[in-house]
Amino acid sequence: MKKIRYEIDPHNSLVTSGSGRRSSLPRFRKVIDGRFKVDENNDLFYHIKAPYPEDEKVPRQIKLKGEWSLTDDHRLRLTLDTWSRATFGDRITLEGEILDVNANSLLFAVTTTSKEGSQSTHLLNLSGIWKADENNRLSFHVKKEGGRYDILTLGGAWQINEGHQIIYQYERARLIRKKKRVHTLIFKGYWDIKDAFRVSYILSKGTDSVFDFKISAGTLKEDRIQYEVGIGAGHRIAPVTRAITLFGRWNLKKDANLSFEIEYEGGKTRSIAFGADAKLTDKDTILFRLKSMVENKDIGMTLELSREILRGGETFIRALKSGRESALFAGAAWRW
Predict the structure, then answer these.
(1) Parallel, antiparallel, or unpaired for β 180-187 and 166-173?
(2) Which of 86, 193, 246, 255 is the most buried (most CB within 10 A)?
(3) What percentage of the chain carries pLDDT values higher than 70?
C-alpha cells in the first residue's frame, strides 16, 4: 500500500509526497489547496478545498496535534505529536505574522497560495492567557485539553508608550522583496502595585491575563512612580533594562487611603490604591510610608507631598497637628 506523506511548502500549502519520503522532484509532489483553522482546543486542522479523484486517498480535513511555540523570528510553529509525525515529520512552521493581541487571545495571520497563484489570508485565533515569565518576558499560554498549556514567548524587550500601554515590536523580512517590516503589538490594560518587588499590568479585570514583573526598588515623586525592570531578551548574557514610568496625580481619600491616578489612552483614568502611615514634617509637608492594600504590608517606598500638591492636604495637615488623623484617614494614617 502506497504511503502518503504530507509537507508544508513556503506558501503555507499542503503538499503530498506519494513515496512517503521527501522528494526534490516536482512530479512526485502535489499541492493540495486548503486552509488552516484551529478549534476550541487550539488543535490545528487543514481543510481541503479542491476535489480529488477517488483513487487518491486524500481526506476532507487533516487534524494536526502537537505543541505550539514561536520561533526566534516570530513564526508560529507546531511540534507534532507521535501520531502526526508518522505522516508529517517532526514539525510544521507557518509563515505569517502576529496580527493582534487581546486579553485572552493571540491572532495569527497565515497567507496561502493556491495552485493558480491566488493568495488568501486566514486567521488563526489561539485562546489562552498572558503571563510574564521568570525573565520578565511576555508569554502567551495556549490553552490545551486537560488543563495543559503551550507557551509562546515573545523573546524581545517590551516598552511603554505615552498612554502607559505595553508595546512589543519585532522585525521580519518579507520573503519576496526581502525588505524588513516592523510589527507593533499593543497590550491594552492598566497598572497595579501589589508589593515591594512586583508591579503588575492587568490586561482585563476578571481574567487571569496579568503581567507580574519582578522589579528593583521604586522611586516616588510628586507626579510619577518609576521602576527599573530587567528583561531577559533573546540570547543576551545580560538582561535589557527598561524604565517603567507612570505619570499621574496623588490624591488623599477617606475611603481609599492614598491613591495615584493615571490617565490612559482615550482619557480614561484609573487609580492605584495604597495604604499608608503618615506623619507631619517640620516643613509642613506630609511624609507617607506606603503599604499594599491587600495585605497591608510595607512596600519599601516613602513619599513626601506638600499641601499644594496633595488634594485635601490642608485639611489633613490640620488633622495631623491636632491628633485626629485616624478619623480623617480611614484608620490608615498614624504617626511613627
Answers:
(1) antiparallel
(2) 193
(3) 74
- Which positions ≥6 away from 134 have C-beta within 8 Å? none
Query: Residue 123: is it exposed, middle or buried by C-beta count within 10 angstroms (0-12/13-18/19+)?
Result: middle
Is the CA virtual torsion 208, 213, 218, 223 positive or negative? negative
What pairs with residue 202 in β-bridges? 190, 210
In a domain, 335, yes or no: no
Structural element, H or E, at residue 248? strand 240-253
Beta bridge partners of 29: 17
Percentage of the chain with pLDDT > 90? 33
Cell of residue 328, nine digits: 480623617
CA–CA dist 273, 194 (Å, integer): 10
Count the alpha carbons within 13 Å of 109 in the hemisphere toward its beta carbon: 10
Q: Does 110 or 332 have the greater pLDDT score?
A: 110
CB atoms within 10 A of CB 300: 13
- Read off the pLDDT band of 237 (50, 70, 90): low
Residue 166: which domain range?
A: 5-328
Residue 336: inside a domain, yes or no? no
31-56 b/e (C-beta count within 10 Å ≥ 16 → b): bbbbbbbbeeebbbebebeeeeeeee
End-to-end CA distance of the chain: give it in Å, rounded: 85
In a domain, 144, yes or no: yes
Q: What was the pLDDT predicted at 291? A: 87
Average pLDDT of 92-98?
A: 86
Q: Which residues pair with 93 in a beta bridge?
A: 77
Q: Please give the distance of CA 63 from its chain centroid, rounded to a whole number.
A: 28
Is 186 within a domain? yes
88 pLDDT exceeds 70? no
Q: Any idea what DSSP says for residue 136?
A: S
| Number of other residues whose CB lies within 10 A of the CB of residue 126 | 20
Between CA 244 and CA 247 the distance in angstroms is 10
Structural domain tally of the chain? 1
